[in-house]
Design goal:
Distance between the termini of chain A: 47 Å
Keywords (chains A, B): Cell membrane, Ion transport, Magnesium, Membrane, Potassium, Sodium, Sodium transport, Translocase, Transmembrane, Transmembrane helix, Transport
Oligomer: homodimer
Order of helices and strands of chain A: HHHHHHHHHHHHHHHHHHH
Cofactor (chains A, B): Mg(2+)
Number of domains of chain A: 1
Structural class of chain A: mainly alpha
Catalytic activity (chains A, B): Na(+)(in) + diphosphate + H2O = Na(+)(out) + 2 phosphate + H(+)
Number of strands of chain A: 0
Pfam family, one (chains A, B): H_PPase
Enzyme class (chains A, B): translocase
Largest sheet of chain A: none
Radius of gyration of chain A: 24 Å
């Protein structure tokens, strides 16, 4: 039985990767358009490749240091020798997911622009196919990594179930570290370029967005790829793998008699999710006269169908593997699946300009920048309430349905399965999310290559929809991050028991001051992290502003299109700044759990993880939704409301959008990874902390 | 012995109130200045009185409803019959503190302006004396309420120690409810008027601040009194009383053998604090050529002296009452006292323009409003780290020094005593804080009455210093609120045990999903609360903007000073809007703990309290410091940096300041009260929740 389960997981991953190859080939068959379009696309590609190359070399140094530390710990008997290798593969595959996604995205931008010359539906097909490559690369590589390690540890090294999950949690740490670098570095790059290009180009020089005279325009387009594609790919690889392995680990803890089956359920669920998602992708198409609503329907049809298929198949799977008496676990999965959809809807409500909150927000531009900022901050804070309630209900349902009343272990396994359920449609939801930056780039290329206005209109329609799907995707990523973080917290406690601590319930009581102090410190981390990343964007953007101003001043004939700006210099500047700025936040995320553990012990660590998860969830939603709402409020004004483009209201809207940029694309998404990385690091260093701590 | 302790507390309160009467008489002997100044002052006074009168009538309805509910619960045996009465007296005294403070503030504004004609030192003396009246009214009434109830319950009704503290916690709930109404209502009033006056007057019409032609100028000055004076008075009354009674309650739980002595320590400490604070006030004076640094030194001399005196006297007190073996409790008190001072310093560092963070922030105005907003938000978030670490260390020191390692009860009593220690200098710190709005009003009157420019310069010097002391006072209030909230959480658990629940350690474990769900919901409350109050300010300000625009348009001759604006109408508008807007947030604060309790039971409530305390602390610091820094960054620009007044940088600074207004003066301070009110309500309704809950 065990072998078949591993095989099923492996087959799932291979199907995903085959689908990737076929889809990628299909995309690459489309024409790249005129030589000018090819040239622009190539500049973007070169910039993105150069950034990633240098990013990987910086990250490489970090990974080398960590591997040395892990080897030393293994030599001291605090870890097994699998840990350093698992850590490396997690980082490698996470980075690879981002890399492949970015490769296809930078190859598809000009193809999408070209396809949009022929029609909206054709454009959607190219962009969505590129997004699918990204989505299924992430899930395919994730499951491949998991199934290969499972096979090796079980059938080659013949380890026990708990030792297997313990080693596998380490590649979660590798994936999270890589993801944090990619998200933070890419997020700083993209927003520094975006803010810098807008502040000087749009506001000071008064030239339109994506104007080829703007020296930061290529950097801006590179940013979309390294931040919104490569960063997101690494990020979601980490979420996906994290949710599966934490569920497996808790399954082993809960089912001592059927450990391997409980461990396999999340993996097989993921494999089924892949197949259902692939089926869903075939239902994404639209007609030529589509407006935004029809486009959104086309995408929703695909994701909804996948979700329904998964909901149907998961039920017999649970019964088959664990027997009818554990049917409750199915409802836990279902709760996660439904919660994910509902959080997406809530995000859409708060950030789409077809609903009241964003429309109201844009009306606040009438009394200036200050009121639209206050309004957006208020909207973001208020929008945390519904997702919190959804997650709260999901936690309770998952816990109680899976038998938590009788056994805490079962209940926690249920919560972890809810996270797996939520992420089971990741292949297709990520496809709908990742196609956005491709469409955005296509719009840039259309503008720079001087294509007909209706082409830009079509790419804009695709791009605008991308903003909504990106916001939905973010809500989804945050919800699953919270559930996964809780599961990892539980895994941490299992790990602490495993390394020999004499754990009692009192240890984790809120009346234990060590737990409380941990809670305070953990709760503070997302605030500090958000502040550091926002300040980084500010500093990096400021250097872009100065460079763009310099080029406008010094390159004669630039404004009359008689001379070309020095695009490469802006790309280089963003690269250097973002690589420099990404180090401190990541180091903090890795060092904090170790320092807190060495001072406060494992009880303090649990408090810290709980605090970070709770405020991280809130801050991530607050920042993502405020940013999304400002962005769409500006678009709503641009669509002709309250005076339209160029009016005072529009200027106020641009201020809101600029504040929202680092909110939604740098700090907010990085917090998701932060809360999981904290847990992963804690798990890996549990042996050290249990043996050595001050209090 | 017991009687002497009650007597000492009573005497402390009487000394404070005598000092109030003497100081008030001294202030009232100063001249009110010219008839025009008197007339302006009278308009402000009338507006403030009218607001408070209507506020009290709205609050009266709420109190009447709550008393009915409490009486019904008492009739059902879920509460004792003391509870409704204690609830009423808490609310009454809290409101009275604000009322008296406001009376003296509105009587001193013109006197301060007039005294500033004679010199800076004289102006400081009047303003500071008015602040002292407020400060010592709060502590005097607080201790009076406590000592009278203690006397009645102990010597007339002859209750046991635990029954006494249980009844006394209820007047905490009354005080907190009143405080929340006062802070939220007053906070909305003051910021709606301020933002409204600035947006139309300064930005659109281009007339200076406090120009008599601005129809909202009187409303703005009324706002300073009802928000920053009456609101703050009610708020700090609640903090002061809450910290003392929660410490008493935990003392009773920890020392079953010496219950009354342990209960009395916080009260006697408070009485000693009053006397030391009075001594401190005599050392606040400055010379005529004082700059801001000298002025700050003058105030610091007074507060530091008081703190040192208290630190010296507390040691023999603890030994005398509980014996040498409990000397550790003294160190808990000391930890709180020192933590309070350090948090104040940290706040000063982040918000004063003599330090780097605010200077850097003002430099961000060079690239526009968006970058100064991003910078301020980042600064606010980052500034949470140091206070969190200070509070964390304070909690651990207080817990461990007071014997927490041996007994949890002793440790929690220590944490509560740290809060009492922190607030023991409240009389004088509140005086330095409350004098700010008096000086602010004096500046307004000087401007409107056309006094000589050097008078305005002097009031500005006093006012600017007031911004720093206000920020320090806020840091201090937040720190003590966090400690008090933890103490109240512990009191809640004692209460739950008392009403018959079979409490185990597992009940409050972070691995209990009910606790986790409570944690999520509680953590969300400060976000929702901040959003609601910010949106309220936005809506109320918008209505002021429309009214001011209307008056500018319709009253002919207004801009040429040939006709008077209709001040009363703006005051009336603010009054109506703020009373209307204050209801929902307060209702949420009262209803949430009951609903969460009825669904999740007492474990969920404990989770909720912990979540709300932790994120409330973070949000309150984030909002107070971001707001303070924006305010001072604008002032720094106005002082001539980056182009000075009227430059583009200044305009960006004004946007920052406007966003900061509701942050620092409405939402931020109200969160302090929120986290304590949640605990108080939970304690009062513990009997109901333990007997009836869903899960």
């Amino acid at each position: 039985m065990e072998k078949y389960l591993v095989l099923a997981t492996f087959v799932g991953s291979i199907i995903a990767l085959l689908f990737v190859v076929i889809t990628a080939k299909k995309v690459l068959r489309f024409s790249e358009g005129t030589p000018l379009m090819q040239k622009i696309s190539q500049s973007i590609r070169q910039g993105a490749n150069a950034y990633l190359k240098r990013q990987y070399s910086v990250v490489g140094v970090f990974f080398a240091c960590m591997v040395v530390v892990l080897c030393v710990m293994a030599a001291c008997g605090l870890l097994t020798w699998f840990v350093p290798f698992a850590f490396l593969t997690g980082g490698f595959f996470s980075g690879l997911s981002g890399f492949i996604g970015m490769k296809i995205a930078t190859a598809s931008n000009c193809r999408t622009a070209n396809a949009c010359q022929e029609g909206l539906n054709r454009g959607l097909r190219v962009a969505f196919s590129a997004g699918s490559v990204m989505g299924f690369t992430v899930v395919g590589l994730g499951l491949l990594d998991i199934s290969v390690w499972f096979f090796l540890l079980r059938f080659v090294f013949k380890l026990e179930a708990s030792a297997i999950t313990s080693a596998m949690l380490t590649f979660g740490m590798g994936a999270s570290s890589m993801a944090l670098f990619a998200r933070v570095g890419g997020g700083i790059f993209t927003k520094a370029a975006d803010v810098g290009a807008d502040l000087v180009g749009k506001v000071e020089a008064g030239i339109p967005e994506d104007d080829p005279r703007n020296p930061a325009v290529i950097a801006d387009n590179v940013g979309d790829n390294v931040g919104d594609v490569a960063g997101m790919g690494a990020d979601l690889y980490e979420s996906y793998v994290g949710s599966i392995i934490s569920a497996s680990a808790l399954g082993v803890a809960a089912f001592s008699d059927q450990a391997f089956k409980a461990m396999a359920i999340p993996m097989v669920m993921a494999a089924i999710g892949i197949i259902c998602s692939i089926i869903g992708t075939f239902f994404v198409r639209t007609d030529e006269q589509a407006d935004q609503r029809t486009l959104l329907k086309a995408l929703s049809r695909g994701t909804n169908l996948s979700a329904i298929l998964i909901a149907i198949i998961a039920c017999p799977l649970v019964i088959l593997l664990l027997g009818k008496e554990h049917l409750g676990l199915y409802f836990a999965i279902l709760a996660g699946l439904i919660a994910g959809v509902l959080i997406g809807k809530a995000t859409e409500y708060y950030t789409s300009d077809t609903f009241k909150p964003t429309q109201d927000l844009s009306s606040k531009s009438q009394t200036g920048a200050a009121t639209i900022i206050i309004g957006g901050l208020g909207l973001g804070m208020l929008s945390t309430a519904v997702p919190i309630i959804i997650v709260a209900i999901c936690i309770l349902v998952a816990y109680l349905c899976s038998g938590g009343a009788a056994s805490t272990g079962m209940g926690l396994y249920g919560i972890a399965l809810a996270a797996v359920g939520m992420l089971s449609t990741l292949g297709i939801t990520l496809a709908t999310d990742a196609y956005g930056p491709v469409a955005d780039n296509a719009g840039g290329i259309a503008e720079m290559a001087g294509l007909a206005p209706e082409v830009r209109q079509r790419t804009d329609a695709l791009d605008s929809l991308g903003n909504t799907t990106a916001a939905t995707g973010k809500g989804f990523a945050i919800g699953s991050a919270a559930l996964t973080a809780l599961a990892l917290m539980a895994s941490y406690i299992e790990k602490v028991k495993e390394v020999g601590a004499d754990v009692t319930f009192q240890d984790f009581s809120l009346m234990n001051p060590v737990v409380l102090v941990g809670l305070f410190i953990g709760a503070c981390l997302p605030f500090v992290f958000a502040a550091l990343t926002m300040n980084s964007v500010g500093r990096a953007a400021q250097s872009v502003v100065l460079e763009v101003r310099r080029q406008f001043r010094e390159i004669t004939g630039l404004m009359d299109s008689k001379a070309d700006p020095d695009y490469a210099r802006c790309v280089d500047l963003c690269t250097k700044a973002s690589l420099h700025e990404m180090i401190l936040p990541t180091i903090i995320a890795v060092v904090c759990p170790i320092v807190v553990g060495l001072i406060l012990g494992y009880m303090g660590v649990v408090g810290m993880l709980a605090g970070a998860t709770v405020t991280g969830f809130l801050m991530a939603i607050y920042m993502a939704n405020a940013g999304g709402a400002w962005d769409n409020a500006k678009k709503y004004i641009e669509a002709g409301h309250f005076g339209g483009k160029g009016s005072d209201c529009h200027k106020a809207g641009v201020v809101g959008d600029t504040v929202g940029d680092p909110f939604k694309d740098t700090s907010g998404p990085a917090i998701n990874i932060l809360i999981k990385l904290l847990s992963m690091v804690s798990i890996v260093f549990a042996g050290l902390v249990v043996n050595f701590h001050l209090l």
